[in-house]
Design brief:
heterodimer; A: mainly beta; OB fold (Dihydrolipoamide Acetyltransferase, E2P); 5-stranded mixed beta barrel; 2 helices; 6 strands; about 35% strand; B: alpha+beta; 2 domains; 9-stranded mixed barrel; 4 helices; 9 strands; globular
């Protein structure tokens, strides 16, 4: 729950950016929303559940050793409106995820965007209406 | 003959283009009129999604969650003490329990709610945590002998095209917002709801809680009608929270709901 305050609702990471810094309902906002990172790796598990879904991703570090990242998303209700379903990800999928990482340096983050194996992209969803562009 | 044919074709094409454009304009105009006609300012039913970017600048922002909301409500000394304790609790990463949110925190959660209308009540269903609220519209007063509750007790009446809601009988255990602004049992909340156009609902909230705030203060919120949405299931269950703590909070070295509330020590 790093940014979890935000996360709760999720954090919104980028989304609510405009109006809501981050929403983590479960705790202090410790996600580094100013420095998103993109990771490529292999899905080890996808948990479709309230309060937030989770993606577990094996990412190889510089030495080739796999580090298993815990990446939370917003709630299933919000993801559905962004085009997700419980079948969006499966163990073994090779994907790319853009996330805001924990300020603690742990392999934990809040998802902002995913690039699926077929190259299509899905956002992490939005909390509330967004301002007209 | 050939020139004559080409000329006729051009004239015909021009006439068709004119008719298409004219028809399109008529459709747009007609559609606008249809929307305006369909807009009943006293029909509040439907699914409404918050539009926090529409809040007027300078007001207390219930979604200013960076840890230092500015401006702050006009706290009393006691109210400020409670707020600071609540904020510390929230910052510790442990706000997740399944207690009902109370009315205002439900409104200030960036998730949609649905309004249903019955003969004697207007009912609100908040998607987040599956919270429900009844607003009685049959002319009754707030009873003086009821037990305080998280969601309080609400009554509503029409003032022109504005729906005015009065509520009280809050138990003082919920937060006013996600930031931890306190509520006492003496709080009286007033809301003035108005459909400012076919797709926009405006609500002005006024909080009158002399124990926590030196004077009544207000927040203006806006919601957009989402005709194509249905609410999804998002109940709060302790089992789901525990799993979330185990998988995410503890992975990030956060205490999760194991953190004790200030008033439980």
């Amino acid at each position: 729950m790093k940014g979890k305050l935000i996360s709760g609702f999720g954090l919104i990471a980028g989304l609510l950016v405009v109006c809501v810094p981050i929403f983590a309902h479960h705790g202090g906002s410790d996600y580094d929303i100013q420095h998103p990172v993109t990771l490529k790796g292999t899905v080890t598990e996808f948990v479709w559940a309230n309060p937030h879904c989770q993606v577990f991703l094996d990412v190889k570090d510089d030495s080739g050793k796999a580090v298993n990242w815990t990446i939370e998303t917003l709630a299933p209700a919000v993801l559905k409106r962004a085009g997700w379903s419980r079948e969006t990800l499966h163990a073994g999928n090779q994907i790319s995820i853009t996330l805001v990482p924990s300020k603690k340096g742990t392999p934990v983050g809040m998802l902002r965007k995913v690039v699926l194996p077929d190259g299509s992209e899905l956002s992490g969803g939005a909390l509330g209406e967004q301002p007209p562009q | 003959m050939r020139k004559s044919f080409v000329g006729s074709a051009l004239v015909l094409t021009g006439a068709l283009a004119f008719l298409i454009v004219a028809r399109a304009q008529t459709d747009r105009s007609g559609a606008a009129k249809t929307n305006a006609a369909a807009f009943d300012p006293r029909d509040l039913t439907g699914i409404w999604n918050p539009a926090p970017f529409m809040q007027p600048k300078g007001e207390v922002n219930p979604l200013d969650l960076g840890g230092h909301p500015n401006p702050l409500p006009p706290f009393t000394p006691a109210g400020e003490t409670k707020y600071l304790a609540n904020a510390k609790f929230i910052a510790a990463g442990a706000v997740l329990d399944c207690d009902p949110f109370g009315v205002s925190r439900n409104f200030f959660t960036p998730r949609p709610f649905e309004i249903l209308s019955t003969r004697d009540r207007l009912v609100q269903h908040f998607e987040y945590y599956d919270n429900w609220r009844e607003i009685w519209t049959d002319g009754r007063k707030i009873p003086t002998d009821i037990d305080p509750e998280y969601m309080g007790y609400s009554i509503g009446r029409w003032d022109g095209d504005a729906f005015v809601v009065d509520s009280g009988a809050y138990n003082g255990k919920a937060f006013l917002t996600w930031q931890g602004f306190p509520i006492s049992e003496s709080m009286h909340q007033t809301e003035r709801w108005q459909r400012v156009d076919a797709d926009t609902l405006k609500i002005v909230f006024t909080f009158d809680d002399p124990l926590n705030y030196a004077k009544p203060w207000s927040i203006t919120g806006f919601w957009k009608l989402r005709k194509d949405w249905v609410l999804d299931a998002h109940p709060c269950t302790l089992s789901a929270i525990k799993e979330y703590d185990d998988r995410v909070n503890h992975a990030d070295k956060l205490p999760g709901r194991d953190y004790a509330k200030p008033d439980s020590k």
